[in-house]
Amino acid sequence: MKARFLWLDMRATFGERKTWLAAGMLAYAALAMPVIAAKPPAHVLSALKGWFSTSDPSILFLFIWTDLAMNKSISVLGVVLAGSLLIREKETGQLAVLLSKPMSPASYFLARTLSACAVMAVLYIGAHLLTALLVARSLPGFRAGIFFASMTVHLFAAFFAVCFSALMSVLIQKRALAALVSLVVLSLLVGLAFIGFYNPAWSGLSSFNPLTHGISVLGHVDDLRPVHLLAPIAILLGFNAAVLALGALRARHLEV
User: Fold this and answer.
1) Calpha distance 217→215 (Å, rounded)
2) Which residue spans within 66-135 are E strands per DSSP?
3) Distance from the Cα of residue 191 to its chain's centroid
4) Largest interatomic CA distance in the chain
5) Nearest to 212 by CA among 198, 232, 241, 230
6) Cα angle value 190/203/50 (rounded, 5°)
7) Minimum mean pLDDT among 16-20, 135-139, 226-230: which range?
8) In whole angstroms, what is the distance from residue 120 CA to residue 69 CA?
9) CA 234 to CA 224: how far, in whole Å?
10) Residue range 134-177, pLDDT digits in tens
11) Cα R_g (the chain), whole angstroms
């Protein structure tokens, strides 16, 4: 039953206006990226050359895509997809009916959150496939392997954005306030994600930031090995599992 509920919830989410708006935002990012990557602002280009000690256009593109497009997008999409989880059902009186079925509040929370993660994955991977098709034609030396390796790790950071927004939803139980807190915290994490690149002295502290692990492939573009993918994915899975566990625990004590 839970698998079918998950599938039906995914289908319902794909039919919602907010999902189409999210898809449009990602499509816009994908379409704009070849133009931005072709002629990045001079101050951005100078800073990137200083941080990465390279003028390789494919590496510069990967940074611009990851930071300007994907990091900002997942912070918004996480809130869009899961920022009102269980709140809407409670406001409309549907939550009591849904929980009368043979599904516990914790299971319902987990199913809805995992459904939102699945929707995020479809949108996120679709944006990368579209971008790869567009950029491969316009960017000399486009390194598809590094691009999709970075995508794989960063996808789990996108899942964190969804899980965190879902947690804030069941903790705060106020639609606007939960969305605001989620967006502020995720934006702060996004803003600090690259602090280890800017100042290596802060790299230890930045390891507590899930978004830093999501962009960690950028630090190994010249010597990428399986451990550089598996280690951050394992860490992000740990972050996500902890957040989901907290959300499920809180959902058990929700007043319907």
Assistant:
1) 6
2) none
3) 14
4) 60
5) 232
6) 80
7) 135-139
8) 15
9) 17
10) 888 887 778 889 999 999 999 999 999 999 999 999 999 888 99
11) 19
